[in-house]
Amino acid sequence: xxxxxxxxxxxxxxxxxxxxxxxxxxxxxxxxxxxxxxxxxxxxxxxxxxxxxxxxxxxxxxxxxxxxxxxxxxxxxxxxxxxxxxxxxxxxxxxxxxxxxxxxxxxxxxxxxxxxxxxxxxxxxxxxx
Length: 129
Known about the structure:
By secondary structure, this protein is an alpha/beta fold. The protein has five helices and five strands, in the order αβαβαβαββα. The model is unreliable at 6-23 (pLDDT under 50).
């Protein structure tokens, strides 16, 4: 039978591992998350994507691989759906899906559209770290 300390310790370890795993994985754009990351001066990637977009699908494994690298551990990745978030497209002056926008805190550090070259995507992400 588990004692209380072992149970609490196990639950705490599980919560920490879930938090660490979700910190680097992409999430849907949320204004509060974006504002908090900007205020903290974190590197932020906005990925404007659409489920039907072949270029977006080609970008996904490249971004996933880069996000797993230790130097990008603080990168906040926020996905914006091209088809349903027209207000955000206007806010960030986006005209096409497969657009990547990098922020370093509150400052835009760079952007690209339609890029599937791993080296140039890595270069874009590196501008904000």
